[in-house]
Write a structure and sequence with these properties.
The complex is a heterodimer of chains A (269) and B (299). Chain A has 269 residues and is an alpha/beta fold. Chain A has a domain of 65 residues. Helices cover 35% and strands 24% of the residues of chain A. Chain A has nine helices and eleven strands. In chain A, strands 7-8-9-3-10-11 form a six-stranded mixed beta sheet, sandwiched between helices. In chain A, strands 1, 2, 4, 5 and 6 form a five-stranded antiparallel beta sheet that branches. In chain A, strand 10 and strand 11 form a beta hairpin. In chain A, helix 4 packs across helix 5. Chain A starts with a strand and ends in a 15-residue tail after the last helix. Chain B has an eight-stranded mixed beta sheet, sandwiched between helices. In chain B, helix 3 crosses helix 4 and helix 6 runs parallel beside helix 7. The mean pLDDT of chain B is 92. The chains are: A alpha/beta (269), B alpha/beta (299). At the A-B interface, helix 6 and helix 7 of A face helix 7, helix 8 and helix 10 of B.
Chain lengths: 269, 299
């Protein structure tokens, strides 16, 4: 069974004068342990989908009747507040775009782990500390960083700490919304390589959102391409790269300068 | 490269911090910009790329070495004359334009300041011509405010503003990093056209090595304030010699190489060592090819 199953998802932003359809009848599935990439340009609706899956969307965003989001067979759109608190983090955890700025600047790293572990699992300080140390080791950070404050860590390190916190309750699905856009290529590579290893070890699935198609092909199993709210093509990563079917996917590739081999001759517009 | 450079940094150093904890943002940096050519300066954040741009723009004074314009030291000369020849395009098209003013205002100012003899009508004609050059429709765009424009359109306005003074040199600091993939290429093509049509010398600063390859004839790789490898773009990227250049290249997203497949990358396995060693002063210049040099990493 799929970890995530999105069926006929339509989301509108309702304004006073006009309604903007951000997501139009989108359906896709993510299998257990699968790394699924969602690519598209700014405004194509990819982040709106990510927010809807964790039920973080706010008015004026409105999910239309007939839409369905199932996580592990459970209807996410029907959860009440108490169920949502159980659902978030335990089933689906999310790494936001500027996640490295989402740590609380006045709390130590240890306190931020304890916050999650105590709220959801009722762990004591000592128990949290040892679990946090374990989680930090997963992302290649030395446990003596637990007493540090966010400003004492580099951007890449903060991003890895956020990922470690996201993994604290062994979620089934990790959503990453442009997790490395603010980082350098070398740091980006280190982080994604780590995520790739971890999902193979721990078995969680990943929904990875980015506009960097090259990176996406490198790391994803399957890829969905979005254009103006519609999912126009879904295929395995190599197919998207080597034999894209949709015209828009072809044009995206044609607008990306190459690092090796023949250069593109660009008039992508 | 028969002509002489328009602009050059000659052994320039810039140090920040106190006496006991000095950081070299530029360590003996030398570079030269030629008419009709693009030099790409690549490196990660904190490598000193933007410091180099600021030294060229005379926002910073060098602590050692000098800035040369058409062969003559610029220190002490008129900043206004210098700005008429050397212009900059910034990374963030959203903050580089004044939200309270129209496109007309943004293009009118440099014309008023640098070509005070132009009459009202001539100035309007000049604005229309500038917009045409960056492929925007003057009729639609001139009276618009920045918030009414897309990121790509704003970046085109920034370029038009830089072109307004008829510069010899444009320094573009990450001009496409905040734009969508499909919009980037248009801006890069525009910079390419300006270079060949107007004979501009371009310094293209980026951490995106694939776009650097697309626009530049020459490339320099910078880390910890030092240029560690430089020369002909195809030669440097096709046959990288410095371990740091190799590290940078192996980290660039490449759809042909899936994670965990193919040969292991030696450089990615020793990131810490390469970073530490490259932060030290590098050895003397070694020639790799006709136009390809490195300063080797100390063992």
């Amino acid at each position: 069974m799929s970890v995530l199953s999105v069926r006929n998802l339509s989301i509108d932003y309702v304004g006073a004068e006009a309604i903007f359809s951000a997501v139009k009848d989108v359906s896709f599935d993510i299998a257990p342990g699968e790394f699924f990439g969602l690519a598209g340009e700014s405004g194509c609706g990819k982040s709106t989908i990510a927010f809807a899956i964790s039920r973080l969307h706010r008015p004026p965003a409105l999910i239309r009747a007939g839409s369905q989001i199932l996580v592990d067979g459970r209807d996410v759109l029907g959860l009440d507040d108490a169920q949502l608190r159980q659902f978030r983090w335990r089933e689906v955890a999310m790494v936001f775009q500027s996640a490295m700025n989402s740590l609380n600047p006045v709390l130590t790293i240890e306190a931020q782990f304890h916050d999650v572990l105590n709220t959801h699992l009722g762990l004591s300080r000592a128990q949290s500390r040892s679990r946090a140390a374990e989680l930090l080791r997963l992302v290649d950070i030395s446990p003596d960083r637990l007493s540090a404050y966010p400003h004492q860590c580099s951007g890449g390190m903060r991003q890895r700490i956020v990922i470690a916190i996201c993994l604290a309750l062994n979620p089934k699905l990790l959503i990453m919304d442009e997790p490395t856009t603010a980082l350098d290529v070398v740091v980006q590579r280190e982080i994604l390589q780590r995520i790739d290893t971890l999902r193979k070890e721990l078995g969680f699935s990943v929904l990875f959102i980015t506009h960097d198609l090259g990176l996406m092909v490198q790391v994803s199993d399957r890829i969905g391409i979005m254009l103006e709210g519609e999912l126009v093509e879904v295929a395995d990563a190599q197919t998207i790269y080597r034999t894209p079917r949709h015209d828009y996917t072809k044009r995206l590739w044609a607008s990306m300068p190459r690092l090796h081999g023949a250069q593109i001759h660009g008039d992508a517009s | 490269m028969n002509s002489s450079p328009v602009l050059a940094l000659d052994n320039v150093s810039k140090v920040f911090g106190r006496k006991d904890r000095q950081v070299f943002a530029a360590r003996s940096v030398s570079l030269a910009l030629y008419p009709g050519r693009t030099l790409a300066l690549v490196g990660e954040s904190g490598s000193g790329k933007t410091t180099a741009a600021r030294l060229i723009m005379r926002e910073y004074q060098p602590d050692a070495g000098q800035l040369l314009f058409r062969g003559a030291p610029v220190a002490g000369s008129s900043l206004k004359d210098y700005r008429a020849a050397v212009q900059m395009v910034f990374q963030d098209p959203f903050s580089a334009l004044n939200p309270a003013h129209t496109v007309r205002h943004h293009l009118e100012r440099p014309l008023r300041l640098h070509q005070p003899k132009l009459g009202r009508v001539e100035r309007q004609a000049a604005i229309a011509e500038l917009l045409g050059r960056v492929k925007l429709d003057p009729v639609l765009i001139t009276s618009k405010y920045p918030h009414e424009l897309s990121g790509g359109q704003r970046q085109r306005i920034s370029i038009a503003r830089a072109l307004a003074v008829n510069p010899a040199v444009i320094v573009a600091d990450e001009p496409t990093s905040m734009l969508d993939v499909s919009v980037r290429l248009g801006i890069l093509n525009l910079l390419n056209d300006m270079k060949s049509q107007l004979g501009l010398a371009l310094l293209y600063i980026t951490h995106d090595i694939a776009t650097a390859r697309y626009v530049s004839e020459d490339i320099m790789v910078m880390y910890a304030g030092q240029i560690v490898e430089w020369g002909d773009t195809e030669s440097v990227l096709g046959n990288p010699q410095h371990p740091y250049t190799r590290l940078l290249l192996s980290a660039v997203p490449d759809p042909d190489r899936r994670f965990g497949e193919g040969r292991p990358d030696d450089e990615l396995g020793r990131i810490d060592v390469i970073r530490r060693q490259t932060a030290l002063p590098q050895a003397e210049v070694r020639t790799v090819g006709a136009n390809h040099f490195i300063r080797p990493m100390p063992e």
